[in-house]
Task: structure prediction
Amino acid sequence: MSEPPPVPPAGRPRRARPGWLGWAAALCLGAVLFTAAGLGRRDAPAGDRTVGEVTRVGVRQGETIPGYARQARAELAALPPGAAYALVSFDAYLAPGRLPAVLAEVEAARVLARVPLPGRQTEVVRLAAYRLPRDVVAGMSALADRKDREAADQRARAAGAADAELRRVYDTGAEVAAREAEAYRAGCACVYAAVVRAEPDLLRAVAARPGVRAVDPAPEVRRLDRAVFTPPLPEQRGVARPPADTALVPTGPAMGDSSEAAPAVISSSPPSLGRAGLPKPAATSRNTARAGVVTRNVARMPPGDVRAQVWSE
Result:
């Protein structure tokens, strides 16, 4: 039979951990865990709330140009203090050398340009414009080289096309690209808008200068890569619509809403053939949609009007 456990001597109580020490240990452990969790949150990359959202600034297809200009003036007059981005539209196509005077005292970021060929749809391009006019001239030179390559590609496709209609489409594309290359290499009067940043007083001063059609402020724009700028073309006076291309006939049904003031030229990539063996239109912002677009300025848009925009860099 086992012996019973020894009984401690009288007067010597059993040692026990004080109650306050247990609470202190628990509190220390909690503090350590809380600190580790906090460090973990600080180390984790913060999410970008602007990802997936695109702000549209400018006129949309079907909108009247005078109405757009009036709305832009009202917004500019009510613009609160603080530097803001704005879309500056010109009433004529400008050569690079004219830009420093028109955009004096404001910080230019980029310009929008196209070669205004009568009866032809030419590509809308964006060019860096931090140093005027040097950046624009350099951008036009690079564009001229690219257009030379596009023209050569279109000519090669035309030579290998068995279908007469398809060959005509390629020949037209080669002609347009060659004329664009020639114009850009000469530093053409092709710039019709600019994206700038300045204080409200300076933006209002730009709006009052000769040759400026409208200054559309966009204080909600924080990142240019998350914004689509659609200024009216100088030749547009009534309703904003893409220019008609008289070279490519027969024409199809009217296109839907456009995210650009002018569509692009024929793509240099091989077109896919549609009915009757004719090439389908190249994918431009007129027929390509992307979700996650925020349409700005509810004063110009019906409530809940959110439209998809596409603008490739």
